[in-house]
Amino acid sequence: MGDLSIRTSSLTHGEEIPEKFTKEGADVSPELTIGGAPDDAASLAVIVDDPDAPNATFTHWTMWNLPPDTVEIPEGVPTTETVTTLGDASQGQNDFGDVGYGGPRPPKGHGPHEYRFRLLAVDTTLDLPPGAPRRELDTSLAGHVLAEDRFTGVFERS
């Protein structure tokens, strides 16, 4: 296939994330449109994080073992360890301590934070239990990422 891509109709790349997708609103995950997975991809992974967090990059969402032919992740993915509607994909623990998507909630007065929505094409199905933390996902992904794409959004609490 062509170049790996991740997009959303929920926000414009580099622009403000609508409140609906943050902890200030409904805290639901945005719809994601996926395309161009390499033919040799065995699975896909999604990582959403905030590199502007005060102490270290803050993980908001991890999902792995999505089928490589996935074309859309619908809005409002359930916060369960396994997502049966997405080919039994696994979700991990975010840095709020919950499983699944946890929307932006930067410290008040800390300025705008950039949130990275990353899609990775992976050459294997990851042997990682559902609910695993980000560090275990990063270890499992090492040496297995075939391609990556991303878009960003911004959110600030004043």
UniProtKB/TrEMBL annotation:
Region annotated Disordered, chain positions: 1-29, 82-111
CDD domains: PEBP_bact_arch
A Pfam family annotated for this UniProt entry: PBP
Compositional bias ranges of the Polar residues kind: 1-12
Gene3D superfamilies in alphabetical order: PEBP-like
Compositionally skewed regions (Basic and acidic residues) per UniProt: 13-26
PANTHER family in UniProt: PEBP (PHOSPHATIDYLETHANOLAMINE-BINDING PROTEIN) FAMILY PROTEIN (PTHR30289:SF1), UNCHARACTERIZED PROTEIN YBCL-RELATED (PTHR30289)
Protein name as it appears in the record: Phospholipid-binding protein, PBP family
Species in which this protein is naturally found: Haladaptatus paucihalophilus DX253
